[in-house]
Amino acid sequence: MIDLVKNLATVNRRTKASVIRELLKLTNKPEVISFAGGLPAPQTFPSERMAEMAQRIVKDNARVALQYGPTEGLPELKSQIVKLLREEEGINTSPANILVTTASQQALDIVGRTFIDPSDPILVELPSYIGGLQVFNSYGAKLIGIQADDDGMIIDELEARLKKLRSDEEHYKFVYIVPDFQNPSGVTLTQERRHQLIRLSEQYNVLLVEDSPYRQIRFEGDAPEMLYKMDTTHNVISLFTFSKTLAPGLRLGFILAHEAIIQKMAILKQSLDLCTSPLSQLMAAEFLKSGVFREHVGTVKQLYKSKKDAMLNALERYMPADKGVSWTKPQGGLFLWVRLPGHMNADELFYEAIKQNVAYVIGSAFHCDGGGQNTMRLNFSYPSEEQIDEGIKRLAGVIKHNLRVKSKVKAAKAGLEIGS
To answer: Which residue, 236, 259, 292, sits at the end of a domain?
Structure first.
């Protein structure tokens, strides 16, 4: 057999398996209550309507639904996206500014292919979406982490890093950010920081890649403006998906950007898949045109708010907050973020949690700098409210036990020091 490692392309050697996907293999038991995956609730899938719609579309429009389509996307869907952006976000755009993609993960890959050369500095949040980090790493980017707090990316730190990169004549390309109900932390970038970010984009001539898979799943509070809407210099590229609002199995998303950028990206997409499924596009277009989409998203938001509240209530009841355990309180999305005391290691704790039949995603997987060992991501969209309550109770038990053990070890060490 050939020497596989020797013959692999550089991009393949750089690409590492997703930590989340590997951890999910350990959670695939019926007795495990999993907060690990970023899965939408299956009961939200409009299956009956989709079945009826798919049958009718194939019967009445097979020449489009079952044929190759334009790489940029079907006009039927792009026109509905233009309408959606105008009505929901106050963004006036045209079909030429839109590239339909095979979900948002392909959109991230196209961004990487379009802009990243090996060793290019790319600025990302700490923590940041692991799927983005995986793609950017595969193209050889030098990832620079920018600290975030409960108001999102810390802009002063970003400015300091951009200033240093420019003075060093480093060829930085873009800032990657998930500004709404961020994966993994669930936090939202404030309106004030968005203004500051736009200012830096103009001042340092750096692109902003705005990844927005969760923005439409806001169930409380007022939404800050999209970065794309605030931008006046065509420096923002926005990524969207229908995976969290309709169904991930459709594998459907889109990129919103200046027409010149879309044209370059469309050429790259030709070499990836020629086109995104026309059947999926026609189904999504009909959902949008009929008005059912807005009604459906309302149902999704209502369910996820109830589950989020259940998780926050369980955390309040069971977690040892007085021992330095804290968590975010998102106003939308699918996730929240738990911070443990600095001396605790959530990577090691994961295996203890699995023994108690509860699972989460280790926070270090979302840190490009190797940090975050005392953090974890919890998903509230997939498990039931009963599972959420029981799962948080189990997880809190694991954390309390670990705190007691560490306290005893610390006391024992102190006793030895006194005795010596």
So the answer is: 292
CB atoms within 10 A of CB 420: 5
CA dihedral 154, 157, 158, 159 (to 10 degrees): 120
Domains in the chain: how many in total?
2
C-alpha of 137 from chain center? 16
pLDDT in tens, 21-49: 666 676 678 899 999 989 999 999 999 99
Do 344 and 255 share a structural domain?
A: no
CA atoms within 13 A on the CB side of 3: 3
What is the rounded CA–CA span in Å between residue 63 and residue 68?
9
Closest CA to 399 of 362, 349, 363: 349
Domain span including residue 89: 47-292
Other CB atoms within 10 Å distance of the CB of residue 400: 15
pTM, full prediction? 0.93
244 φ, ψ (degrees, to nearest 5): -95, -15
Contact between 85 and 256 under an 8 Å Cβ cutoff? The reply is: yes
For residues 353 and 370, give the distance between their C-alpha atoms in angstroms, rounded to a whole number. Answer: 22
Which letter does DSSP use for residue 98 in this model?
Answer: E
Q: pLDDT band at 405, cuts 50/70/90? A: confident
For residue 30, is the peptide bond before it cis, meaning its omega torsion is within 30 degrees of 0? no
What token pair was written down for 305? 């708010």
Where among 275, 292, 309 does a domain terminate? Answer: 292
Q: Is 246 found in the same domain as 303? A: no
